[in-house]
């Protein structure tokens, strides 16, 4: 229905152009600026550090714009951009005090980077102890009363900085109004279509209003300090890894749609939104830093716009999420593998951009986008290339135990009791209740068993051929041997498991069924916490923390450590880390060259571990994506990365650990060095489902990032790196029907692209015909105007200029007399000839002196006029008259344009490129008078050149008119033909085959004994299509041959007759 509606819109030219005009007036009405920071001189910056062009451009952009998102590839140097931006704006007086919020473990690292770039900077790095309840008030006063260049604070402590009360009240009312509007929309939708729409629940709506009020009342009550950020002097906010605040609450009437994100949002996101709202309302500055602006859901782009450009959303009427979604997104109905990874189900997913050009323009209006590809254009060896140009997929066989745990159907199609599929079937349609099985717990178990069956049954025996950890260990060992001479290092990412002990304490005696736990004395943990919160007075007496401080610290400690995967991993006695380590040691890698990221308990220990890895003392580091993501700079000797299990939002950060600058092995051999990336999956398990999720999300993210370069308006058919995820999904399922489904889906997308391109070509022909017809009228009028202009030209004996005074619009005539040419005096010249020659020279001298006086007066008035032009309002000004023309000037802050008009017809105006003077882009925001740089002598030469080239311009127009006439004839013929798409039957057959195959897969999921007999209709259609094409080519060649034979036959008798006539004539 949607496709038919689009076709209906585009088929009628008038309808199409009318809607295009509405769109252009509302959305497509802005031009993106370009930023060139090459001229930046960063005062106080460490001259030993070199900034790359994209970094200087980004710094220059942050100076000019109020809200910026640095969407730079992981490892592209965002931190340095932010630091330099902060200090340069402080130097220029644009900002006073910058607040920088960074991930908890990076505060010290940011402080070090800051002082490394600006040794004389005045920076406050907020320590954990500064944020205790007892010290907070002192900290807030310290921030408010000191002239810091920057204050660096951890993400979890950002909420401690109170927000202005009026902003909180304002947002509370706004959320209540949005909730009411949403309810009204649902009521209206139900009234219009009661069969297809669910009736809104009034009781649930009232409960929602109560929840919103309670949430904001709690925020107001929680405001612990009488000092809020408005009183601290903060006028610039920088948020590092801003995607961690993506869960901003929003209202929507869309139900049962996947891909919308978390509608309820998080407290940390709401707090940040309050702060950005205050900054926007007071014309302050905001900068977000992220390499993954879209991490989980396409709706995150909407939230990013709410944070950084709320006014742009308001101007376009897109404040409400549903309006934004209908304008830029599309809900796609598609089949996806279910959690069992054995069968397909229909899913409604918000996963397609329908107007990517408009959204891309809105995004790039505040986003500074830099990818590795962008940098590689200028520096081909900026980062290592990936081995084979794509990850290495490693698929491990599924054991019988895993199969039984996931679910095996009997002859009646019933799955074994207690299996994942059986449990999920029992949970479907039921509400989650505490203590009962639910879909989430089923999914968690499905992920666990895909990683290692021993996470379900610690006492189970797993053979090597069914072990992902063994497969990873084997690849690690092979790379270890290959790079032994250069001490190559490797990273292994393991998400759904946690080591139970230090890497050097893992028992090596038992390889299978081994699991040990390092028990830590609870009293020791309590003592450590007590000591960290205690302090001493000036007499050396211990000041113990209060009970409330201890409780708050425990809550904060708990909040910081919550990582779902890690918490789940702690509940199992078996751990994959130790299993991998044992395999590695058994193969031959010394245990002291293997480490777990969990070995490092403090930031200092972590940095020490990273140094050992960069020196090659530790060759293998195993860790979770959460602990080994942002801030893990261990790339100096990295040769391979292994992804044993991962979530979609973690992939880019994981691979960013290696695909970044600073690898010395790559620097030593940039042409041949390749980084290996391994991805592991167990066939026919949740791994295939997880790779499908990655495929879905990477599709939207990659397509959006590259859309503006490719000029695409729809992104459904564009697929780059995500195709590798498709392959992985197909390999992991092990089902040939699913592999065939992946191929069919790709072929359908390819054919749909061709079909759309075919239709677009027809629409293009229609557009071209209309445009050329309009161009014809325009060119004819322009030719007439230029001929009129040319006819008014006067070539005077002397140079005559009438110059206007812009102050009072009075004019004055100047005539520069042409000096007479004097021939050289002959050697035997007479006395009379000598006197005449001398007299002429004196006359010329007098004329030259008079001309000089006039010329000086002209130059003075001309300079005065241009000075007035710079400061006057933007409009046309009559500047002078010259050679029969009136010369006008029009100035903007970007340029001044001069034009020629006939004296009697000011409506005709002609300007050439050489009559436009542009301002220096680096001076746009200064008081620099670029008009003062225009000198009269050069200006007069440009005028003469423009006048001389008028006949040439007229000839060009005549040629253009002739070309346009030919184009009109060509496009008229093409539009009238209206050919049908020759491969439409093949496309329809492909879609039929795909539907048939999906139906078969659904039946296979219900009936184990069902054996599909899939006979693709599309293959037969394609075969016939190719046969027709070959026959057509043969017919054409035969026709040409017959034509040639007929021609020869017709020619032969004529030739004979001619010869006969010739003979007879003889």
From TrEMBL:
<protein>
    <recommendedName>
        <fullName>Helicase ATP-binding domain-containing protein</fullName>
    </recommendedName>
</protein>
<dbReference type="InterPro" id="IPR001650">
    <property type="entry name" value="Helicase_C-like"/>
</dbReference>
<keyword id="KW-0175">Coiled coil</keyword>
<feature type="coiled-coil region">
    <location>
        <begin position="940"/>
        <end position="974"/>
    </location>
</feature>
<dbReference type="InterPro" id="IPR014001">
    <property type="entry name" value="Helicase_ATP-bd"/>
</dbReference>
<dbReference type="InterPro" id="IPR038718">
    <property type="entry name" value="SNF2-like_sf"/>
</dbReference>
<dbReference type="InterPro" id="IPR027417">
    <property type="entry name" value="P-loop_NTPase"/>
</dbReference>
<dbReference type="GO" id="GO:0005524">
    <property type="term" value="F:ATP binding"/>
</dbReference>
<dbReference type="Pfam" id="PF00176">
    <property type="entry name" value="SNF2-rel_dom"/>
</dbReference>
<dbReference type="InterPro" id="IPR000330">
    <property type="entry name" value="SNF2_N"/>
</dbReference>
<dbReference type="InterPro" id="IPR052933">
    <property type="entry name" value="DNA_Protect_Modify"/>
</dbReference>
<feature type="domain" description="Helicase ATP-binding">
    <location>
        <begin position="59"/>
        <end position="311"/>
    </location>
</feature>
<feature type="region of interest" description="Disordered">
    <location>
        <begin position="1046"/>
        <end position="1066"/>
    </location>
</feature>
């Amino acid at each position: 229905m949607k496709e038919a509606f689009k076709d209906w819109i585009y088929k009628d030219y008038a309808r199409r152009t009318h809607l295009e005009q509405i769109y252009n007036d509302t959305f497509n009405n802005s031009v993106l600026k370009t930023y060139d920071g090459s001229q930046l001189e960063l005062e106080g910056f460490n001259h030993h550090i070199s900034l790359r062009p994209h970094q200087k451009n980004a710094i220059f952009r942050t100076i000019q714009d109020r809200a910026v998102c640095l969407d730079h590839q992981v490892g592209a140097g965002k931190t340095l951009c932010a630091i330099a931006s902060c200090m340069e704006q402080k130097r220029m007086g644009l900002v006073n005090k910058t607040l920088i919020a960074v991930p908890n473990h990076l505060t010290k690292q940011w402080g070090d980077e800051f002082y490394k770039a600006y040794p004389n900077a005045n920076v406050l790095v907020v320590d954990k102890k500064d944020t205790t309840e007892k010290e907070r008030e002192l900290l807030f006063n310290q921030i408010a009363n000191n002239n810091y260049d920057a204050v660096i604070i951890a993400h979890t402590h950002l909420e401690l900085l109170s927000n202005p009360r009026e902003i909180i009240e304002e947002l509370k009312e706004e959320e209540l109004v949005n909730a009411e509007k949403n309810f009204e929309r649902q009521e209206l939708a139900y009234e219009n279509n009661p069969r297809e729409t669910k009736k809104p629940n009034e009781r649930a709506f009232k409960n929602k209003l109560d929840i919103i009020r309670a949430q904001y009342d709690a925020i107001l009550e929680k405001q612990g300090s009488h000092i809020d950020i408005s009183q601290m002097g903060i006028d610039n906010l920088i948020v590092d890894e801003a995607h961690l605040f993506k869960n901003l609450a929003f209202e929507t009437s869309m139900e049962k749609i996947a891909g919308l994100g978390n509608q309820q949002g998080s407290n940390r996101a709401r707090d940040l939104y309050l702060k950005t709202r205050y900054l926007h309302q007071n014309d302050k500055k905001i900068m977000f830093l992220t390499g993954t602006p879209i991490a989980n859901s396409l709706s995150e782009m909407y939230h990013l716009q709410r944070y950084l450009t709320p006014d742009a959303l308001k101007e376009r009427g897109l404040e409400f999420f549903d309006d934004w979604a209908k304008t830029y997104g599309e809900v796609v109905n598609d089949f996806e593998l279910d959690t069992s990874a054995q069968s397909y189900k229909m899913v409604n997913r918000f996963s397609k951009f329908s107007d990517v050009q408009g959204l891309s323009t809105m995004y790039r209006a505040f986003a500074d986008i830099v990818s590795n590809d962008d940098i590689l254009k200028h520096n081909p060896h900026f980062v290592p290339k990936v081995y084979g140009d794509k990850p290495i997929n490693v698929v491990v066989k599924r054991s019988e135990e895993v199969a039984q745990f996931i679910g095996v159907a009997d002859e009646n199609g019933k799955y074994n009791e207690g299996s994942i599929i059986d449990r999920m079937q029992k949970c479907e349609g039921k509400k989650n209740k505490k203590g009962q099985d639910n879909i989430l717990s089923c999914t968690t178990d499905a992920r666990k068993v895909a990683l290692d069956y021993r996470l379900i049954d610690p006492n189970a025996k797993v053979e090597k051929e069914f072990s992902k950890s063994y497969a990873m260990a084997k690849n690690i060992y092979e790379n270890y041997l290959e790079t032994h001479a250069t001490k190559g290092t490797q990273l292994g990412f393991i998400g759904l498991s946690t080591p139970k002990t230090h890497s050097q304490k893992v028992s090596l005696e038992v390889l299978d069924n081994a699991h040990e736990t390092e028990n830590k004395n609870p009293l020791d943990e309590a003592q450590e916490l007590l000591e960290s919160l205690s302090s001493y007075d000036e007499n050396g007496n211990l000041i113990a923390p209060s009970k409330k401080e201890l409780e708050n610290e425990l809550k904060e400690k708990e909040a910081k450590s919550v990582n779902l995967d890690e918490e789940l991993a702690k509940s199992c006695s078996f751990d994959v880390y130790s299993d991998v380590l044992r395999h590695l040691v058994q193969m031959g890698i010394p245990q002291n060259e293997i480490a777990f990221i969990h070995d490092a308990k403090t930031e200092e220990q972590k940095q020490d571990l990273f140094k050992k890895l960069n020196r090659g003392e530790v060759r293998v580091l195993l860790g979770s994506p959460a602990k080994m993501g942002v801030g893990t700079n261990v790339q100096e000797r990295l040769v391979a990365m292994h992804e044993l299990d991962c979530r979609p939002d973690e992939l880019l950060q994981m691979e960013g650990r290696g695909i970044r600058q600073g690898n010395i092995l790559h620097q030593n051999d940039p042409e041949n060095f390749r980084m290996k990336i391994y991805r592991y999956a167990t066939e026919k398990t949740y791994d295939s489902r997880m790779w499908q999720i990655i495929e879905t999300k990477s599709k939207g993210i990659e397509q959006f990032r590259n859309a503006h370069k490719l000029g695409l308006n729809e992104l459904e058919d564009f697929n780059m790196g995500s195709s590798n995820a498709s392959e992985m999904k197909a390999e992991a399922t092990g089902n040939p029907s699913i592999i065939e489904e992946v191929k069919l889906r790709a072929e359908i997308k390819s054919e749909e692209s061709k079909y759309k391109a075919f239709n677009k070509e027809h629409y293009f022909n229609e557009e071209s015909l209309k445009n050329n017809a309009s161009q014809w009228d325009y060119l004819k009028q322009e030719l007439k105007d230029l001929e009129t202009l040319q006819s008014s030209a006067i070539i005077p004996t002397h140079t005559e200029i009438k110059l206007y005074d812009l102050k009072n619009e009075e004019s004055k005539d100047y005539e520069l007399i042409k000096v007479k040419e004097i021939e050289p005096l002959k050697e035997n010249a007479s006395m009379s000839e000598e006197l005449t020659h001398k007299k002429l020279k004196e006359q010329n001298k007098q004329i030259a002196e008079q001309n000089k006086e006039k010329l000086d007066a002209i130059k003075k008035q001309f300079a005065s006029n241009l000075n007035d032009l710079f400061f006057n309002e933007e409009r046309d000004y009559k500047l002078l008259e010259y050679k029969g023309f009136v010369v006008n000037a029009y100035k903007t802050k970007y340029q001044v344009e001069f034009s020629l008009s006939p004296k009697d017809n000011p409506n005709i105006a002609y300007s050439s490129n050489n009559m436009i003077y542009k301002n220096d882009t680096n001076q746009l925001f200064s008081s620099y008078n670029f008009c003062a740089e225009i000198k009269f002598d050069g200006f007069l030469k440009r005028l003469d050149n423009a006048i001389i080239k008028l006949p040439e311009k007229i000839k060009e127009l005549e040629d253009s008119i002739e070309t346009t006439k030919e184009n009109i004839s060509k496009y008229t013929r093409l539009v009238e033909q209206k050919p049908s798409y020759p491969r439409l039957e093949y496309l329809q057959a492909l879609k039929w085959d795909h539907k048939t195959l999906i139906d078969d897969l659904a039946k296979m999921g219900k009936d184990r004994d069902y054996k599909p007999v899939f006979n693709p209709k599309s293959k037969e259609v394609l075969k016939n299509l190719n046969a027709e094409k070959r026959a057509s080519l043969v017919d054409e060649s035969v026709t040409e041959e017959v034509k040639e034979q007929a021609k020869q036959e017709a020619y032969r008798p004529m030739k004979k007759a001619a010869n006969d006539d010739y003979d007879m004539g003889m």
